[in-house]
């Protein structure tokens, strides 16, 4: 069922104004495309995570955890005007982080599931995106935080949307 294997990388960089506002994360590992014998395109990646800057968190400049990722693409329809409608999704499950060991507001794991409807012409695309977060950013949902402007409760579980 495995069509090919490859070395996979995912580099996420947020260049904030200083180290407390900056993140630099490299996921590196192995990936594969899976033959589903259907219209569904399926890929799976398994990464180790190296964390450089991380908004001042305790896991900076260390290997800290892993990511299992599943990506899926389903063509829904082709239209007579040349446009197409496609569902694209990916789920990232991050686990094995040590962030929770020195801060009870942090977690060892986090999940993000991204769901996209893509309406595409030759030179123009429209997207609707819904993302579900569980322990987003490795923050424990409901934990009390204070980044200098007063206490507040983390809302790291739930849905986000954009178009």
List keywords for this structure.
single chain; 163 residues; mainly beta; Outer membrane phospholipase (ompla), Chain C; eight-stranded antiparallel beta sheet; two-stranded antiparallel sheet; 10 strands; 0% helix; globular
How would you describe what is shown here?
Pfam families: Channel_Tsx (PF03502). Belongs to the nucleoside-specific channel-forming outer membrane porin (Tsx) (TC 1.B.10) family. Keywords: Cell outer membrane, Membrane, Signal. One of its GO terms (molecular function) is nucleoside transmembrane transporter activity. The structure is a single chain. This protein has strands at residues 2-14, 23-34, 41-54, 62-78, 84-95, 110-120, 125-134, 144-145, 152-153, 158-162. The relative contact order is 0.13. The protein has an 8-stranded antiparallel sheet with strand order 1-2-3-4-5-6-7-10, with no helix packed on it. The protein starts with a strand and ends with a strand. 0% of the residues lie in helices and 60% in strands. By secondary structure, the chain is mainly β. The chain has no helices and 10 strands. It has a single domain (2-162), classed as Outer membrane phospholipase (ompla), Chain C. The model has no long low-confidence stretch (mean pLDDT 96).
């Amino acid at each position: 069922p495995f069509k090919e294997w490859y070395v996979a990388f995912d580099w996420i960089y947020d260049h904030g104004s200083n180290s407390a506002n900056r993140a630099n994360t490299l996921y590196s590992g192995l990936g594969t495309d899976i033959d589903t014998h259907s219209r569904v395109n399926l890929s799976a990646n398994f990464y180790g995570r190296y964390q450089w800057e991380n908004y001042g968190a305790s896991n900076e400049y260390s290997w800290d955890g892993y990511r299992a990722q599943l990506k899926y693409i389903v063509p829904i329809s082709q239209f007579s005007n040349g446009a197409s409608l496609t569902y694209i999704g990916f789920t990232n499950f991050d686990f094995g982080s040590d962030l929770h060991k020195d801060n009870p507001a942090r977690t060892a794991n986090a999940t993000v599931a991204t769901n996209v409807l893509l309406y595409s012409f030759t030179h123009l695309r429209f997207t609707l995106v819904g993302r579900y977060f569980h322990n987003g950013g490795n923050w424990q949902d409901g934990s009390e935080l204070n980044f200098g402007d007063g206490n507040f409760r983390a809302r790291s579980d739930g849905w986000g949307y954009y178009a």
